[in-house]
Amino acid sequence: MNKKKYTIAQILPALNTGGVERGVVEISRALVKNNFRSIVISSGGYMVSQVIRNGGIHYNLNIHTKNPFKWPKIRNQLKIILENENVDLIHFCSRTPAWIGMPLGNVLDIPIITSVHMRFRKTNIFKKYYNSILTKGNCIIAISKHIEVCVKNSFPNVSDKIKIIQRGVDLDLFNPSQINPARIIAQSKLLNLKDNLPVIIMAARPAMWKGYVVLIKALSKIKHDFQCILIGAGDGSQKFQNILIKKIVESKLETKIKLVKSTRDIQAAMILGDLIVMPSLTPEPFGRIILEAQALGKIPIAFDHGGASETIIDGKTGFLAEPIKAESLSEKISYVLSLNTTKREKIGQFAKKFVTKNYSHVKMCNLTLSLYKQIIAEYKINS
Fold first, then answer.
1. Domain 7-168+360-382 CATH superfamily
2. Could you state, in order of their start, the residue ranges of all structural domains in the chain?
3. Architecture of domain 176-358
C-alpha cells in the first residue's frame, strides 16, 4: 500500500530577500525531495522562480495586506486554493497571513503550524494581541532559544506547544568553492572596492534598529584603514539615506563607507568581506546572516544579545560586543582588523566547521518535515 503524499502549504507575505523567505524556499525544496507536495502562497517576489524550479507550486495572493476590510475576500480565495490542492497542513510564517487564514484550520479541518521569528520588545496591549495570533495553531516553531523564552514570557499558557527548530544555512549555496570567480569579480566591480584594504560588510534591511548609526560611530573610532559596504542601506528612503550620509560626513568617513542596494548575489558580495557585522540594537530573533558568514569562512561580529549569542562563540566562531555600545563594537572590529591573515583564516575555518556541524539547512529541513508528519498524525488521532 502506497503512503499518502502529504501536501503542505507554507504561507508568508512575500518571497523577496530575507531569512524567512530563504527558509521557506529551502523547506519547499526539501518537501519535494521527500515525496511531499509543496504549496507556497505569497504576494510574489523574485524567489518565486526558485520555488517553481525546485518542483513547488506557487500561488500569488494579496496575503500581506494589513487592511482588515480586505481579509474576508482574501480568506475566501485562500480557502479555495487550500481545498483545491487538498492541503494536509498549513504553515503560517508571519502574523498578517495568520490573521487572514487562521480560521480556515477549523473550517477545513486541518492542522496549523506557525513560526515565530519577529522581535519581541516592550509593547502595548494591542501589539501583544497582534502577536498572539501565532499562538493559536496546533504547534509553534520558535527559531531560536531566545524566541522560545520570549514566547513563554509573553504567553505562558502555550509553553507546551513550542518546538525549537533553529534556522539553518544552505551549505552548498554558501560554499566558497561553489562561488564562481566571475561572480566575485562582478560584485567587486559593482561595489567598486579598493585593492589591499580590509573590507567590512553589513548586509541588512534599511531599518534604523539594524544598527547603522552605531556602526558608523564605532567605525569613526578605528585607527586602521578600511572600507565598509552597507548592503541594503541603498534600498532605504531618501530620508533614511540622508540620515546615514549626514552621520558619515560628520564622522569624516565619506571615503570609507558606501551605501549600496541589496544584491541578489549576496554570497559573492559577502565573500569579499574580511568581516561581517550585525550591530542590531534590539535582539535579533536569530540572525541568519551570521551563519551565512560563518559558512563562507568569514568572521562575524555582533552585539551579545538575541540569536547572536547562540550562534557566536566569542573569540572562536566570531566576536560578541557589549550590546549597543559603540566603543565595544569598535574594539572588536579593531581587534579583527589587527589580526594577520593566518589568524583570521583560522577563526574563519573554525566558524565554518561549527556551522556545518550545528546549523545546516538539511538539519533544519529534516526537523521541520518530521514535525509536519508528527502534527498531521496527532491531529488525525485527536479528530
1. Glycogen Phosphorylase B; (3.40.50.2000)
2. 7-168+360-382, 176-358
3. 3-Layer(aba) Sandwich (3.40)
Per-residue pLDDT of the chain (383 residues; tens, 9 = 90+): 456 799 999 999 999 877 789 889 999 999 999 999 999 999 999 999 999 999 999 999 999 999 999 999 999 999 999 999 999 999 999 999 999 999 999 999 999 999 998 776 656 788 888 889 999 999 999 998 889 998 998 899 999 999 999 988 889 989 999 999 999 999 999 999 998 899 999 999 999 999 999 999 999 999 999 999 999 999 999 999 999 999 999 999 999 999 999 988 999 999 999 999 999 999 888 888 999 999 999 999 999 998 899 899 999 999 999 999 999 999 999 999 999 999 999 999 999 999 999 999 899 999 999 999 999 999 999 87
Nearby residues of 267 by Cβ (< 8 Å), 6 or more positions away: 173, 174, 179, 183, 292, 296
Q: Which of 300, 281, 15 is nearest to 174 (CA)?
A: 300
**Phi/psi at 113 (nearest 5 deg)?**
-115, 145
What is the three-class DSSP state of 309?
Answer: helix
Burial 76-103 (b: 16+ CB within 10 A, else e): ebbeebbeebebbbbbbbbbbbbbbbbe
Reduced to 3 states (helix: H, G, I; strand: E, B; else coil), residue 104 is: helix
Integer distance in angstroms from the first to the last C-alpha of the chain?
23
Concatenating the DSSP letter of every residue in 22-87 gives HHHHHHHHHHHHTT-EEEEEES--TTHHHHHHTT-EEEE--TT---GGGHHHHHHHHHHHHHHTT-
Q: How far apart are CA 39 and CA 28, in angstroms?
A: 8
Q: Please choose, from the candidates 116, 99, 16, the residue with its C-alpha nearest in 3D space to the C-alpha of residue 63.
A: 99
The two domains 7-168+360-382 and 176-358 share their CATH topology (first three levels equal): yes
Nine cell digits for residue 310: 547562540
